[in-house]
Amino acid sequence: MDATSRPPAGTASDTAPDAAADTGLDTAPASRAAWGALAVFTLVNLFNYIDRTIVPGVGESIQHSELHITDSQFGVLVSAFLFVYMCAAPAFGAFGDRPWRLRLVAVGIAAWSLATALAGFAQSYAALLTARASVGIGEAAYSAIAPAMLADFFPPRLRGRVFAVFFAATPVGSALGYVIGGVVDKHYGWRAAFWVAGLPGLLLAVLVLAVADPRASTPRATRPRGAAAPTGLRVYLLLLNRRYIRTVLGYAAYTFALGGIVTWMPSFLVRVHHVPLADADTQLGGAVVVTGFLGTFLGGWLGDALVKRVREGYLWLSGIAMLLATPLAYLALTSADPTLYWGSLVGAEILVFISTGPINSALIGDVPPAARAAAMAGAILTIHVLGDVPAPVILGRLSERTSLADAVLIIPVAIAISGLIWTYAAWRGGRESVMA
C-alpha cells in the first residue's frame, strides 16, 4: 500500500477498514439484490424530497391564507421539521446494524407520509407546525439507515456512482415538490397539495419490506469488525476522526446554503422578479431537475475517477466545485436581467449538485463499516443544527428587517465557506496521508 492510499493515522478507519476492501471483494460485481435495493431506496428518496419541498412550493399561498403566517413563522415552519429530524437521526442511527432495521425504515416512511397528509387538514398555525415537525421523525429513520445499507450492498469502487443515483432523487424530488405544490395549489388549493404528496408514501413503506437486507445474508464470521461495539465507543471514535469532522463541517455550510435556496427561492422569484407563484414553481422545478441530474451524475463519475488517482479526490472535487459556484450564486441573486440570473442560477446549481455523491461517499469512506449508520446520523445532526435548521429562520427575520432580496445574499457566503472547508480538508487529508 502506498502513502497516498493509507488511511490517516489516528482515525477510526485505522482500526476497522472497509469490509469490502479488507476482504478483497472490491472487484466483485454487485448483486441483483443490490441494484434492486438501490432502485427502491432511490424511489423512496424521491418522495422524501417531494414531502420536504411541498411547503416552499405552496409557501406564498399558506402565508396569505386564513392562517396569516409571517416570514419568521414560515421560516420556523420549515425549520421545525428539520429540528425534529436532526434530533431523531442519532437515535435511529444507533439501530443501523440491527436485524430489524428494514422494518424500522418502513415504519418511518409510513409515519412521515401520514404526517404530510395530515398537514392538509390543519386549521391553525400550531396544528400545521405540529404536523410538519412530525414528518422529521419518520424521515430520520430512513435517512440514517438507507445510505448505510447501500454501502453494505456495494463495494467501494462503485459507491460514488451508487450515491449519485441515490441522491439524484434529491433534485428531482425537490423539483416535483415545487411543481406539485404549484399546480395542485393553483387548481385545488394548498391543502390538497399535502394530500397528493403524502399518501403515496404509504405504499412505498410496504415496498421497502421486500428489500433483502445484505447483513442478513452475510455469515456472522465475515461481518465487519466492531459491529458489536457500544454506541458510545462509536461516537468517541467519530470525534477522533479528523477527516470525518472536517467533511461534516463543510457539509453544514453547504446545507445552510441549500436550506436558504429551497425555502425562499419561490418567494424570491415572486417578490423580486414578480413571477406568479405557479410559474415560479414550474420554472424552478424544471431548472432543478436538469441541473440536479447533470450535476449529481457528473459528480458521481468524476469523483470515482478522481479518487483512483488522488486519495482525497472526493473532497477536492466538492471543494473546488463549491468555490466555482460562489460567484455564480451571487450573480443569480443580484442580477435584474432574467437571462443573466437564470444562466447564473443554472451554472451554480450544477456545481452545487456535483458535490452530492462525492461528499456522501467521503463520509461513508471515512469510517469503519460498523459505524456507517452512526456516522450518517451524526452528520445529519450536525449539518442540520448548523445548516438548514437556522437558515430559513435567519433569512425570514432578515427579510422582515430589510428585504428578501438582501436576506438571500448570505447564501453565496455559505457556499464559499463550504468550498473553503472542503478544499482545506482535502489538502490537510493528503498531508496526513503522506505523513502517516
Short account of what is shown:
It is built from 19 helices and no strands. The chain is mainly α and 436 residues long.
Write the layout of secondary structure elements.
Blueprint: H1 19-22, H2 32-57, H3 59-63, H4 71-93, H5 101-119, H6 125-153, H7 156-188, H8 190-198, H9 201-208, H10 231-240, H11 242-272, H12 277-307, H13 313-334, H14 338-354, H15 356-365, H16 372-388, H17 390-401, H18 404-407, H19 410-435
Write up what this structure looks like.
With 436 residues, the protein is mainly α. 77% of the residues lie in helices and 0% in strands. It has helices at residues 19-22, 32-57, 59-63, 71-93, 101-119, 125-153, 156-188, 190-198, 201-208, 231-240, 242-272, 277-307, 313-334, 338-354, 356-365, 372-388, 390-401, 404-407, 410-435. Helix 12 runs antiparallel to helix 13 (313-334) and helix 12 runs parallel beside helix 14. The relative contact order is 0.17.
| Mean pLDDT over all positions | 81
SSE string, helix = H, strand = E? Answer: HHHHHHHHHHHHHHHHHHH
Percentage of residues in helical conformation: over 70%
Low-confidence stretches: 1-25, 219-230
SS class: mainly alpha
Secondary structure: number of strands: 0
Total helices: the number is 19
Short key terms for the protein model shown above:
436 residues; 19 helices; mainly alpha; 77% helix; disordered N terminus; single chain
